[in-house]
Every structure is written in structure tokens, then in C-alpha cells.
Amino acid sequence: MLSKKFQRKKENFVCENCGQMVNGNGYTNHCPQCLWSKHVDINPGDRMEKCGGMMKPISVDLKNGKYGVLHKCIKCGFKKKNKIIDDDNFDMVIKVAGNNKQS
């Protein structure tokens, strides 16, 4: 079954990495506290990816004045870039950015 490229899905969840309760807004794709994500989508919001592995934030970059975090699935190795938003823990963004050379 084919899915749309983006499906807005407003879901709350408990982060499986740090236990933070996250209130989703339909665009939420990672925990704002620890920046970890979960490999659940083929296309954003479709929840069709069967892997289900945890996605570790491995690097941060700055492009056109916007920060992005690169996640890597610790189960299958898939990599996906996501935007950092104002609600994200910027101390964690800085910590991940400091690890860029080690990833």
C-alpha cells in the first residue's frame, strides 16, 4: 500500500530513551528533552516502518540559520535528518553538536 509523502498525525508519547512525556503537535518527530526518535515511518506520519528501532541523535548542523539533527537507527542503521524547534532542549543540541566529530 502506498502512502502520502507526509501525513500529519497528532500523537502524544512517552520517550523510550529518557521517559519524558511528549505532547505531539502533528509534526513532532523526536523527544524535545533528549532528541532521540523512533524508526516508525517510511514517509513522515505514516507509521508503516516495521523496524521500530530507537534513533540516536548523532550530529547537528546549521543550514540557512536553522539547526537540524541527524538521527541514526541503532537497530538497522537508517539515517534521517529532522529540524530542531524552539521547544527542543538546546543544551542537548549543543551536546550532540559537540559529538559530531565522534559519530
Query: Distance between the terminal alpha carbons, to the nearest Å?
Result: 35 Å
Mean pLDDT: 89
**Structural class by secondary-structure content:** mainly beta
Order of helices and strands: EEEEEEH
Main β-sheet, in a few words?
Answer: 4 strands, antiparallel
From the alpha carbons, calculate the radius of gyration and give it in angstroms. Answer: 13 Å
Helix content: under 10%
Poorly predicted tracts of residues: none
Shape: globular
Total DSSP helices:
1
Q: Please give the number of β-strands.
A: 6
Description:
The chain has a four-stranded antiparallel β-sheet, covered by helices on one side. The radius of gyration is 13 Å and the shape is globular. It is 9% helix and 28% strand. The protein has 103 residues and is mainly beta. The chain starts with 12 loop residues before the first strand and ends in a 5-residue tail after the last helix. It has one domain (13-102). The longest helix is centred in the last third of the chain and has 9 residues, at 90-98. The model has no long low-confidence stretch (mean pLDDT 89).
